[in-house]
Design a protein that fits this description.
Elements lengths: L31 E2 L2 E2 H11 L6 E5 L4 H7 L5 E5 L4 H15 L5 E4 L9 H10 L6 E7 L4 E4 L5 E5 L5 E3 L3 E4 H10 L9 H7 L4 E5 L10 H16 L9 E13 L7 E3 L2 E3 L13 H14 L4 H4 L12 H14 L3 E10 L9 H12 L6 E6 L5 H4 L3 E13 L14
Helix pairs in contact: 3-5, 8-10
């Protein structure tokens, strides 16, 4: 939601004239923050999240052309808002129904909250269920709460224990929240979308919010947002994250040669081999080791946990799906894979001539720069099962950088779809 005027935020921090409101002032969603507008930060998290299919930016009519120019990309739509926030949300919901009629969920987010951690969005998606109408981030309050009277003196102290500050995004079943906006179209007493659902008797689940999901409302909020961005920038993390958490994970896997002929899958490519591999999936020992290295860095189980060999849906499955899943687990937490280091241990096939093709394939699966992918090979000097040519082993190391709130992520199980 980027249609508000932002009067409480005060004057713009510089004299940019690109986006001007009705009073010829730069609206807060276009203020510069860490090299780009506040709105761009708010959009970025949704743009890169694997579960998001479309982004709808609702802005004031006088900003339509500028915003469309700034966000001219696939699956990003810019529409005009109404005179109130509620009217703007309703317009966005109607657009969502037209863009993706089959879409089940919609997240409604304030553009003035630019530092949404991706892990929080993932947790909300994992939390929503048939038992609730939606999910909202709820931040526990640390200060003592009071009611004041007309004379501006304290009337009474309120127990803060059950109190929470609700943040956005607020995630809902799309058809339900759309119907609620139709029903309450003439009622302007709601300050957020949870209020509509509660007024209709629905239940809203909560997940723990975060202080960095700060809304740019007052002038001092801008300084705090810049502080968060500076901390993230010093750690090479996207804005929206706290101080970094650097993790290292190791993976190891073994597969035995079969009596049937090859080829075999190795590091994501088909390799000529006199014998195939014994495996439940496609038997790509190299990708399996990489998966376990990533899962290890995340403390997120292992490949057998996510893709059990007892589950028939993984029979003969393409192991690139497994590695893509592991990579998405990092990104869903707001993290980045810094390096993948793979060693293949075998007498045959010879890895040297295949190394560049393997690196390129792993880079394509993980969407990482080629310079972050290492593929090495060794033999066991004719010792052990690999030395006797009975199979192939692989070991891998993954280095991952995560935001400090990544452990709040609630994982979803792997599925073939």
């Amino acid at each position: 939601m980027a249609a508000g005027s932002g009067n409480r935020a005060g004057p713009a921090p510089h004299h940019d004239t690109t986006h001007r409101g009705s009073e010829n002032k730069l609206e807060k969603q276009f203020w510069p923050l860490a090299g780009k507008p506040v709105l761009a930060h708010s959009v970025d998290v949704f743009r890169t999240h694997p579960r998001v299919k479309a982004i709808i930016i609702v802005t004031a009519p006088h900003n339509i052309e500028h915003v469309r120019s700034d966000f001219d990309e696939p699956n990003c739509y810019v529409i005009a808002g109404g005179a109130t926030r509620q009217q703007s949300v309703h317009a966005g919901l109607k657009a969502a129904a037209d863009i993706d009629p089959a879409g089940r969920f919609v997240a409604i987010h304030d553009a003035a909250r630019p530092l949404l951690p991706p892990a929080l969005l993932s947790t909300m998606l994992a939390t929503i269920s048939d038992e609730v109408a939606g999910v909202a981030p709820a931040l526990p309050l640390a200060d003592t709460l009071s009611c004041i009277n007309a004379q501006q003196t304290i009337d009474r102290i309120i127990d803060r224990t059950p109190m929470r500050a609700l943040q956005t995004p607020q995630l809902f079943w799309r058809e339900l929240i759309t119907d609620l906006h139709k029903h309450y179209a003439d009622d302007t007493n709601f300050t957020d979308d949870c209020g509509l659902a509660l007024a209709a008797g629905h239940t809203i689940a909560t997940v723990t919010g975060t202080h960095q999901l700060l809304k740019l409302t007052q002038p001092q909020d801008y300084a705090m947002l810049k502080t968060y961005c500076n901390a993230a920038d010093s750690a090479s993390l996207p804005a929206g994250h706290g101080m970094p958490d650097i993790r290292i994970g190791n993976g190891f896997d073994v597969h035995k040669f079969a009596d049937t002929p090859g080829p075999i899958m190795l590091a994501g490519i088909s390799v000529e081999s006199r014998r195939g591999m014994l495996a439940h999936s496609d038997g790509d020992v190299a990708l399996h080791a990489l998966c376990d290295a990533i899962f290890g860095a995340l403390a997120d189980g292992d490949i057998g946990h996510h893709f059990p060999p007892s589950d028939p849906q993984w029979h003969a499955a393409d192991s690139s799906l497994f590695l893509k899943f592991a990579t998405d687990r990092v990104r869903a937490r707001g993290g980045q894979i810094m390096n993948l280091d793979l060693t293949i241990i075998c007498e045959t096939p010879k890895i040297g001539p295949l190394r560049d093709k393997m690196r390129a394939r792993i880079a394509a699966i993980t969407e990482l720069p080629l310079g972050r992918i290492a593929v090495k090979a060794t033999t066991s000097e004719k010792l052990g099962f690999t030395g006797r040519g009975e199979g192939i082993a692989a070991q891998a190391t993954a280095s991952v950088i995560l935001p400090d709130d990544a452990d709040n992520f609630s994982p979803a199980p792997a599925t073939l779809s």
